[in-house]
């Protein structure tokens, strides 16, 4: 029989088996040191999963906010920490992003360890969304009927989970069949519920008003979905864009004829080429890992992109703050170990180009879906697709051009559009600015300040940017 001295004590924080009495409770040396370090540092940590992380031996390093909160819950007392305790008012509090108070730039400066911790959280979230499937005895016809019912619902009902949803069948990322309308509808519907699982796990998203939730969901659905497709394509090293239901659109033009439907060929030929040139190949060049990808997807989710819908000022500010925080974390990881300024700048530009490409592809996708709608194709008569990809454009047109003539809003210069879609708005802007680079510095600064505005207008309407820049120069 073992004596009380030899009894195994379990850490009340992480369930490790080497617990000892520390700070008023039973904890392991790891949690003891963690509790002391956090309190002594006076840092305020934030949980990005709603303060609900499970703290165990194998997961205790994933979220410092929830780990510290559990330390307090099991009775660890800061008064027992020598040399630091002053009063309860100095206790470190754990709060969500929306509840945190503004901090100085020094306080918000993120280290590699914190960036890694944040990335780990999002990698776990991505794995959860990808593995959130259930095996069922439902036949394919029954699944398709449920998909059809979901596509007949609306975004708010989908977010509130009061409408039917696409079955969460396991996604297959092996290229086993060529894209057709049936498997495209199936894979895109699965992408919608994947994005639903992803978005609704963000506390800040759940704190938005219903109107803001709807607008943000519609805006970020396509960019996040295309990024997931691109990364899975990169992982599989596939010579074609993967959609998640064993279906693929070939990259090589001589294989496009294998896609029977001409409308799908028209839609995804240019999208696939752009995705490889400006998203997949750059991710290979950057050596993007699962951690990098998870943070990049969070950045794409929080990015305002080309959103000009009815998101409130409060909602927009919340999401912009989150974007800045997540973009800083991503760059901290990507630039870790990179010393020269030119290399760091190159990484920054490549990441921004990837994000810009996702916005361009999403805008093109929405535009082509609207064209399908005008042709009367049955697949785009579904209410959810109309709301996410067709009425979204109408909202943007009305918002931006309510004071413009009809001829200006419907104009689409094909030569300009081809250049912008294939080479990117940024490159076109840079080419245009090069012509005036010899002018005074204040001229260049004023034009640069308007680039973001021009980019939004261009991505939405493909307006002739040369005319807009000419107006700026003449008006200076």
Automatic annotation (TrEMBL):
<dbReference type="GO" id="GO:0009888">
    <property type="term" value="P:tissue development"/>
</dbReference>
<keyword id="KW-0863">Zinc-finger</keyword>
<keyword id="KW-0675">Receptor</keyword>
<keyword id="KW-0479">Metal-binding</keyword>
<keyword id="KW-0539">Nucleus</keyword>
<dbReference type="InterPro" id="IPR001628">
    <property type="entry name" value="Znf_hrmn_rcpt"/>
</dbReference>
<dbReference type="GO" id="GO:0090575">
    <property type="term" value="C:RNA polymerase II transcription regulator complex"/>
</dbReference>
<dbReference type="InterPro" id="IPR049636">
    <property type="entry name" value="HNF4-like_DBD"/>
</dbReference>
<dbReference type="InterPro" id="IPR000536">
    <property type="entry name" value="Nucl_hrmn_rcpt_lig-bd"/>
</dbReference>
<keyword id="KW-0238">DNA-binding</keyword>
<dbReference type="GO" id="GO:0009755">
    <property type="term" value="P:hormone-mediated signaling pathway"/>
</dbReference>
<feature type="domain" description="Nuclear receptor">
    <location>
        <begin position="8"/>
        <end position="83"/>
    </location>
</feature>
<keyword id="KW-0805">Transcription regulation</keyword>
<comment type="similarity">
    <text>Belongs to the nuclear hormone receptor family.</text>
</comment>
<dbReference type="Pfam" id="PF00104">
    <property type="entry name" value="Hormone_recep"/>
</dbReference>
<feature type="domain" description="NR LBD">
    <location>
        <begin position="147"/>
        <end position="391"/>
    </location>
</feature>
<feature type="region of interest" description="Disordered">
    <location>
        <begin position="86"/>
        <end position="107"/>
    </location>
</feature>
<dbReference type="InterPro" id="IPR035500">
    <property type="entry name" value="NHR-like_dom_sf"/>
</dbReference>
<dbReference type="InterPro" id="IPR016355">
    <property type="entry name" value="NR5-like"/>
</dbReference>
<dbReference type="GO" id="GO:0000978">
    <property type="term" value="F:RNA polymerase II cis-regulatory region sequence-specific DNA binding"/>
</dbReference>
<dbReference type="InterPro" id="IPR001723">
    <property type="entry name" value="Nuclear_hrmn_rcpt"/>
</dbReference>
<keyword id="KW-0862">Zinc</keyword>
<keyword id="KW-0804">Transcription</keyword>
<dbReference type="GO" id="GO:0004879">
    <property type="term" value="F:nuclear receptor activity"/>
</dbReference>
<dbReference type="Pfam" id="PF00105">
    <property type="entry name" value="zf-C4"/>
</dbReference>
<dbReference type="GO" id="GO:0008270">
    <property type="term" value="F:zinc ion binding"/>
</dbReference>
<protein>
    <submittedName>
        <fullName>Uncharacterized protein</fullName>
    </submittedName>
</protein>
<dbReference type="InterPro" id="IPR013088">
    <property type="entry name" value="Znf_NHR/GATA"/>
</dbReference>
């Amino acid at each position: 029989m073992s004596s009380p001295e030899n009894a195994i004590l379990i850490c009340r924080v992480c369930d490790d088996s080497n617990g000892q009495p520390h700070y008023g409770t039973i904890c392991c040396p790891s949690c003891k040191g963690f509790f002391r370090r956090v309190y002594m540092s006076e840092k305020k940590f934030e949980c990005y999963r709603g303060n609900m992380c499970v703290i165990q031996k194998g997961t205790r390093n994933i979220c410092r906010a929830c780990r510290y909160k559990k330390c307090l819950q099991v009775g660890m007392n800061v008064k027992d920490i020598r040399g630091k305790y002053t009063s309860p008012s100095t206790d470190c509090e754990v709060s969500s992003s929306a509840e945190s108070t503004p901090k100085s730039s020094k306080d918000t400066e993120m280290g590699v360890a914190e960036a890694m911790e944040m990335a780990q959280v999002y990698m776990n979230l991505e794995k959860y969304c990808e593995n959130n499937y259930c095996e069922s005895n439902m036949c394919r016809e029954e699944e398709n009927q449920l998909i059809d019912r979901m596509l007949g619902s609306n975004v708010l009902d989908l977010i509130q989970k009061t409408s039917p949803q696409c079955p969460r069948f396991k996604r297959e990322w092996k290229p086993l069949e060529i894209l057709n309308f049936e498997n495209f509808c199936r894979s895109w519907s699965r992408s919608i519920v994947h994005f639903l699982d992803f978005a609704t796990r963000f506390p800040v998203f759940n704190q938005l008003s219903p109107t803001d939730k709807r607008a943000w969901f519609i805006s970020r659905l396509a960019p996040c979905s295309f990024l997931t497709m691109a990364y899975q394509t990169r992982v599989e090293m596939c010579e074609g864009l993967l959609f998640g239901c064993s279906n693929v659109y070939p990259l090589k033009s001589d294989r496009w004829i294998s896609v029977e439907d001409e409308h799908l060929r028209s839609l995804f030929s240019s999208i696939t080429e752009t995705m490889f040139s400006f998203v997949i190949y750059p991710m290979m060049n950057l050596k993007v890992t699962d951690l990098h990808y998870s943070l990049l997807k969070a950045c794409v989710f929080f990015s305002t992109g080309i959103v000009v819908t009815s998101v409130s000022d409060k909602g927009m500010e919340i999401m912009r703050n989150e974007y800045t925080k997540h973009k800083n974390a991503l760059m901290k990881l990507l630039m870790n170990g990179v010393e020269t300024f030119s290399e760091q700048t190159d990484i920054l530009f490549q990441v921004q180009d990837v994000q810009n490409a996702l916005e361009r592809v999403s805008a093109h996708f929405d535009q082509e879906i609207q064209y399908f709608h005008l042709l009367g194709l049955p697949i785009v008569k579904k209410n959810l697709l109309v709301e996410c990809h067709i009425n979204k454009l109408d909202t943007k047109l009305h918002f931006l051009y309510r004071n413009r003539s009809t001829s200006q809003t419907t104009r689409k210069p094909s030569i300009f559009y081809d250049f912008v879609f294939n080479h990117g708005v940024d490159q076109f802007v840079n080419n245009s600015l090069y012509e005036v680079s010899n002018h005074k510095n204040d001229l260049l600064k004023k034009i640069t300040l308007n680039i973001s505005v021009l980019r939004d207008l261009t991505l939405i309407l493909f307006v002739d940017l040369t005319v807009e820049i000419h107006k700026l120069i003449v008006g200076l």
